[in-house]
User: Which sequence fits this backbone?
């Protein structure tokens, strides 16, 4: 049984990158979406990557983009030598197919709780399957919309349907996760991986080392149920 993979997103400086890796993360996320609280410029990202590759060359670094052009994304890939791209907008499967590195595609849970959530998840399943037909899309990220009225994924009213979805698809789970609630989230949903940003911060863009350590420790010591989601593991 493999422990869920851990992605800490919104890294903005070399010290936080080093601390996150030493805490035990599998993937680091650098956000290249302008006008967002955790945006990093190419120059800042170069310094993060330079220091990271000296000490932790094996770390997987994910560049996060949202509705940006293919040329801009590819420029970041080439200049920074990032390992993966996360697409957080309405990028189509055809767009994902043009990316030169593996892709994590974000899917958003409806912030309005529907009367029949199984219908929403039927549509989400079709969407997930369409993206996963593209060889570049190896992992999905299930998240709450920005500004959602739902504080965390633990507050959704359709946990059994969500757990079933996560068992069937290679998926990172995000949305209001913290060191205080991650154990419950793991037990409830049994995800293949988890993604956290604000839940391990002192403030936007500045990580809290102790929170990162506690979060990673809990995830790494979690044992999934035998045979749960055996076909839905996130790729290395």
Assistant:
């Amino acid at each position: 049984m493999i422990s869920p993979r851990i992605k800490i997103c919104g890294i903005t400086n070399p010290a936080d990158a080093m601390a996150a890796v030493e805490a035990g993360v599998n993937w680091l996320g650098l956000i290249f979406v302008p006008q967002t609280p955790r945006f990093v410029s190419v120059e800042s990202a170069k310094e993060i990557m330079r220091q990271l590759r000296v000490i932790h060359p094996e770390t997987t670094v994910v560049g996060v983009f949202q509705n940006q052009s293919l040329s801009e994304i590819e420029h970041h890939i080439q200049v920074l030598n990032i390992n993966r791209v996360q697409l957080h907008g309405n990028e189509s499967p055809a767009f994902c197919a043009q990316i030169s590195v593996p892709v994590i595609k974000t899917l958003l849970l409806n912030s309005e709780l529907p009367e029949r959530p199984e219908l929403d998840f039927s549509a989400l399943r079709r969407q997930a399957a369409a993206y996963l037909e593209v060889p570049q899309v190896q992992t999905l990220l299930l998240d709450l919309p920005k500004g959602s009225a739902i504080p965390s994924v633990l507050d959704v009213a359709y946990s059994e349907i969500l757990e079933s979805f996560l068992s069937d698809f290679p998926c990172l789970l995000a949305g209001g996760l913290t060191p205080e609630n991650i154990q419950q989230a793991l037990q409830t949903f049994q995800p293949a991986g988890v993604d956290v940003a604000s839940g391990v911060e002192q403030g936007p863009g500045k990580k809290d080392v102790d929170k990162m350590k506690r979060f990673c420790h809990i995830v790494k010591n979690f044992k999934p149920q035998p045979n749960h989601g055996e076909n839905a593991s996130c790729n290395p």
